[in-house]
Design a protein that fits this description.
It contains 16 helices and nine strands. It has a domain at 9-253: TIM Barrel, CATH 3.20.20. The chain has a seven-stranded parallel β-sheet with strand order 1-4-5-6-7-8-9. Strands 2-3 form a two-stranded antiparallel ribbon. 49% of the residues lie in helices and 12% in strands. Helix 13 links the parallel strand 6 (246-250) and strand 7. It has helices at 9-14, 35-44, 47-52, 54-67, 81-88, 107-111, 118-121, 123-136, 149-158, 166-174, 176-200, 220-236, 257-261, 276-283, 302-316, 336-354; strands spanning 73-74, 90-93, 97-100, 142-147, 204-209, 246-250, 267-269, 288-293, 322-326. By secondary structure, the chain is α/β, with parallel strands linked by helices.
Length: 355
């Protein structure tokens, strides 16, 4: 159905197999730091139209690959597609962030959430996945993704971004039954969503637990990791997705690396607050590691960017199973030339390491 894959470094690295050099891709690699992205977004009129028009989502997914020799494409979409499809009415405005017109405020709101039909409610996403996969012509693998249940819950309950997560955390403590009901509903939707992406052509899958690090040592396993465990189990037991690698990324999740790796995922994403060498010592070769350069390094000179990239490649050591990435998304104001320096250095430094 799809063209044969020519560059399989990413998939081989996630399987902890030997590669000629360390694969690299960048979170938010299709984004505002690229002038061509800004032009396409202006053409679309707004961010959601960009996401919901498969041809435009395909265009911006491919833009960074035309500039840089990256080893993967990642679907251009948003983590909040599921709650938007559930009727919470998402709006995304520059400088304001995501907002839901109908946040969840009580048990009845949660009980009334609909069960999604991926073939209709989120068809624009799966159509984009298939279109992108075909347009890639086998050049690199395509990554599909979702937000984690807990991360989606924070937005659905708060009604948008938050620093304190007062309403979401309040629900965890005051009404845990309602919190678990919401998390289970989003988990079930996420499982169907990722399976649909796999069926549409995604070759790797990633769960962004962007706000897992906001939880405490005793609430994270119960309200975040436990539901990601369900996702991994469901994907690994389904004929469509069982062979597709899954990466779990909890921003601020350094305290739980061993537990994340024990879910059966194929790779663990690291933010920049964790030493990649110590992470590997803690986890061993059970999973691949993805990460983990501080995104703000890209504000420095190209020489400094290269030095930091080379340091991380060396710090990981002469082992299989490293996917180079930033420790979180690239910032909008970054000079694309710094990304060129980063990608070139990762490839060249890792080749030298193998020699």
């Amino acid at each position: 159905m799809f063209p044969e894959l020519k560059n399989d470094r990413l998939l081989r690295a996630i399987r902890r197999e030997p590669v000629d050099c360390t694969p690299v891709w960048i979170m938010r690699q299709a984004g505002r730091y690229l002038p061509e992205y800004r032009a396409t977004r202006k053409e679309a009129g707004d961010f959601l139209t960009l996401c919901k028009t498969p041809e435009l989502a395909c265009e911006v997914t491919l833009q960074p690959l035309r500039r840089f020799p990256l080893d993967a494409a990642i679907l251009f979409s948003d983590i909040l597609t599921i709650p938007d499809a559930m009727g919470l009415e998402l709006s995304l405005n520059e400088g304001i962030g995501p907002k839901f017109a109908k946040p969840l405020r009580n048990r009845r709101d949660i009980e009334n959430l609909p069960t999604l039909d991926m073939a209709s409610d989120l068809r624009y996403v799966t159509d984009a996945v298939t279109l992108i996969r075909n347009e890639l012509s086998g050049s690199v693998p395509l990554i599909g993704f979702t937000g984690s249940p807990w991360t989606l819950m924070t937005y659905m309950v708060e009604g948008g971004s938050s620093k304190e997560f007062a309403l979401a955390k309040g629900m965890l403590h005051d009404d845990p039954e309602s919190a678990h009901l919401l998390l289970q509903k989003t988990t079930d939707a996420i499982i169907d969503y990722l399976k649909a992406q796999a069926l549409a052509g995604a070759q790797a899958l990633m769960v962004f637990d962007s706000w897992g690090g906001a939880l405490s040592s005793h609430t994270y396993p119960v309200f975040s990791l436990g539901y990601m465990q369900q996702i991994v189990d469901a994907l690994k037991s389904d004929p469509v997705s069982k062979d597709i690698p899954v990466t779990l990324f909890t921003k601020g999740g350094g305290n739980w690396l061993e537990s994340i790796a024990a879910t059966g995922c194929d790779a663990v994403g690291l933010d920049w607050t964790v030493s990649i060498a110590s992470a590997r010592e803690r986890i061993g070769d059970k999973v691949a590691l993805q990460g983990n350069m501080d995104p703000t390094i890209l504000y420095a000179s190209a020489d400094k960017v290269s030095l930091e990239a080379e340091r991380i490649v060396k710090e990981f050591g002469a082992y299989n199973g490293h996917v180079f990435n930033l420790g979180h998304g690239i910032h909008p104001g970054i000079d694309p030339e710094k990304v060129s320096a980063l990608v070139e250095t990762v490839h060249s430094a890792s080749r030298r390491k193998k020699d």
